[in-house]
Amino acid sequence: MTTVDAAPGAYTFDPATTALVIIDMQRDFCEPEGFGETLGNDVSLLRSVIPPLQEVLATARATGMTVIHTREGHVPDLSDCPPAKLNRGEPSLRIGDPGPKGRILIRGEYGHDIIDELKPEPGELVIDKPGKGSFHGTTFGAELEARGITSLVVAGVTTEVCVHTTVREANDRGYECLVLSDCTGSYFPEFHRVALEMVAAQGGIFGWVADSTALLSALTAQEAVA
Ligand code: C5J
Hints:
By secondary structure, the protein is α/β, with parallel strands linked by helices. Helices cover 36% and strands 21% of the residues. It has nine helices and ten strands.
């Protein structure tokens, strides 16, 4: 077992039954001219998570941990996109509209795919999800069960939306979740801060929070002993 110095207390996990889950590090959210920027957001706030997350990803791969990536998006005919999601707000571009990186949040389009810096390796699972949570409308839960996964180390964007929804869904299903504070990001720094506080509040009502340094030093110490 490996122990990470976390809030609200130590997070103990077995890397063999733990998955690193990287949520929605897609061009549409993280790159200039993607969907996120067309909504008026500053994507540099999300891009700051890339360097620490690259380090965590490299270490997870080197230690043989399961790595799972998710992508938020829809089938081309939008049949899996409820009107409540499609029609909300007054964006300059809606889901499915043609944008500079292809149709916004549509599977198979350039903008929908994961950024080059965190590109999945062959054999790593990529879960396409129509919603904010990773369990809704996907095979994520079945894939975790098939692999005997009981703990999730969660990173990606955005902290208060898809990361939070996934952690809440996972917590209700009995998974022990560690959220990496510097490997998650939001267009709204205040939402990021409060979302992390919410995870660890009340004795860890949704899980645990630590930064990547704490996780990496725990994994490195475990490697040294092994
Ligand atoms: C959003 C996400 N924010 N991946 N998606 O719409 O958090």
